[in-house]
Write a structure and sequence with these properties.
Layout: E1 3-4, E2 18-21, H1 25-35, E3 49-52, H2 58-66, E4 83-86, H3 93-100, E5 109-112, H4 119-123, E6 131-136, E7 146-152, H5 158-169, E8 172-176, H6 183-191, H7 193-210, H8 215-235, H9 240-246, H10 253-261, H11 267-285
Parallel strand pairs: 2-3, 2-4, 4-5, 5-6, 7-8
Antiparallel strand pairs: 1-8, 6-7
The structure holds NADP nicotinamide-adenine-dinucleotide phosphate.
NADP nicotinamide-adenine-dinucleotide phosphate (NAP) binds near residues 22, 24 and 27.
């Protein structure tokens, strides 16, 4: 089973230097959490950060510019990187990893966020014994409310595990997997999950329109409702089933809707089929 963040995995030091290869949408969002101090947490020292990307998007360039970090094609680092985040698309990974191999030292941790690229795929291109952590983040890392599942190979030390846990925690919730085969289900639930919630918001708004609301008002109600319900689940320990029961009076309006959503042909079998399709596709993509 998956072990959610252990308290004793709280690092005191961090990686130095850090190399990021490919700072696009996802790695850029992660970097914004790593660089920006929040809730008493110190950000990563920008002087220890080196970024290589030929085409970072404008907002990532703005973020890096704020910290005087200039992306370059291939940089001289003061020492071998202690952490390399590989943030390129899966289809260019092989070439990028081959170029990286000569820069990896026994102290380097390679952190990959590429969907569908297994630890075994990644390690093929790197020196024998390279420490690798494979991650599946989701897009809410952009607002530091992400969900990131991690799996490490046997060469990752306890200290590296603690340090990466600390860094990734700055982007939201972290869960360590103990088996890489869980990655397909994780991808289906949390990796792709934000899109399902956005679709739910669209459906809820459309249904409001059919009840006579204007599109603008219906979308405002829908977004605020999902945002508020999400915040309640984040803030309270109360399980979602209890939160649902708390707002459902017998014979009331919520109960009338839930009778439809929770019947045998309601939402549960649809979600089940959707997650099964996504997990199957994830398996196919990882070969
Ligand atoms: N987006 C998501 O929801 C999500 C979720 C989980 C995991 N991921 C993973 O995150 C990774 C990045 O996805 P993304 O959406 O952030 O893609 P992206 O915005 O295209 O970012 C990739 C960046 O890498 C750059 N790049 C390409 N070749 C490079 C090279 N040889 N050296 C250095 N940089 C290079 C690209 O520049 P150019 O644009 O000039 O090519 C681009 O700026 C993928 O592996 C994806 O599977 C994404």
């Amino acid at each position: 089973m998956m072990s959610i963040l252990d308290d004793d995995l709280t690092g005191t030091t961090t990686f130095n230097p850090v190399l990021v290869v490919g700072a696009g949408k996802m790695a850029g969002a992660i970097l914004s959490a790593w660089l920006e101090p929040k809730d008493g947490r110190e950000g990563l020292d920008p002087e220890t950060l080196f970024v290589e990307d030929p085409g970072s998007p404008e907002d990532v360039l703005d973020l890096l510019g704020k910290y005087d970090v200039v992306p370059q094609a291939r940089q001289e680092l003061p020492a071998a990187p202690q952490l390399v985040m590989v943030g390129v698309k899966p289809q260019v990974m092989d070439g990028v990893l081959k170029d990286l191999a000569s820069r990896i030292s026994p102290e380097t941790l390679v952190y990959s966020i590429a969907a569908g690229r297994t630890i075994s795929d990644i390690s093929k291109h790197l020196p024998e014994g390279t420490a690798i952590v494979r991650a599946m983040p989701n897009t809410p890392v952009m607002v530091q409310s992400g969900m990131t599942a991690l799996i490490a190979n046997e060469f990752v030390s306890t200290e590296q595990r603690s340090q990466i846990n600390d860094l990734v925690s700055s982007t939201g919730t972290v869960a360590w997997l103990d088996n890489e085969s869980q990655m397909d289900a994780v991808t289906a639930v949390s990796g792709s999950g934000p899109a399902y919630i956005f679709w739910l918001a669209e459906c809820l708004a459309k249904a409001g329109e059919r009840q006579g609301l204007s599109p603008e008002l219906a979308m405002t109600l829908s977004k605020a409702t999902i945002d508020g319900a999400g915040s309640m689940m984040g803030l309270f320990d109360t399980p979602p089933s209890q939160l649902r029961e708390n707002v459902t009076s017998k014979g009331g309006t919520t109960a009338a809707a839930l009778d439809v959503l929770m019947n045998d042909e309601g939402l549960a079998p649809l979600i089940d089929a959707a997650i099964e399709a996504a997990a199957k596709r994830s398996k196919e993509l990882s070969g």
